């Protein structure tokens, strides 16, 4: 998911902002409330939401799932204790921006041009 070019980095930046806003709205607000309504337990909603949030990051491997589940739990506890959702959204987006945009940029990871794959010519 780490971008390879500056144009991809711009899209990654927008993706980070979207993830911060969308994932926090869904996993810290909508899903816990909906599950809480269906089960009668806000704790069940919070637990399910936290586990699904971590599991959604399966593409990062086991360490990524465990780390995002732990962060999701911290965020859920903060949300349940009254931290404004907009703060959680901002912090989530900031963490993603650092991981997908700032760290690769500081390491010189991006090239100026789009990486092109060599053309495959059919054999005769």
Automatic annotation (TrEMBL):
Keyword Flavoprotein attached = no
Q: Give an example GO molecular function.
A: endopeptidase activity
For this protein, the parts annotated as crossing the membrane are 38-55, 62-80, 86-106
Boundaries of each CAAX prenyl protease 2/Lysostaphin resistance protein A-like domain copy? 9-98
Pfam hit, one: Rce1-like
Task: Say yes or no: keyword Secreted present.
Answer: no
- What UniProt keywords apply to this chain's record, in alphabetical order? Hydrolase, Membrane, Metalloprotease, Protease, Transmembrane, Transmembrane helix
Q: Which domain of life is it from?
A: Bacteria
Which processes are annotated in GO (biological process)? Answer: CAAX-box protein maturation
Q: What is this protein called?
A: CPBP family intramembrane metalloprotease
């Amino acid at each position: 998911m780490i971008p390879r070019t500056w144009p991809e980095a711009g899209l990654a930046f927008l993706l980070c902002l979207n993830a911060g806003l969308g994932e926090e709205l869904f996993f810290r607000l909508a899903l816990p409330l909906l599950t809480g309504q269906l089960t009668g337990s806000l704790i069940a909603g919070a637990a399910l939401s936290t586990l699904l949030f971590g599991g959604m990051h399966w593409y990062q491997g086991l360490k990524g799932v465990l780390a995002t589940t732990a962060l999701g739990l911290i965020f859920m506890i903060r949300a349940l204790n009254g931290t404004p959702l907009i703060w959680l959204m901002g912090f989530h987006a900031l963490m993603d921006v650092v991981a997908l945009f700032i760290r690769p940029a500081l390491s010189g990871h991006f090239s100026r041009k789009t990486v092109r794959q060599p053309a495959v010519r059919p054999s005769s």
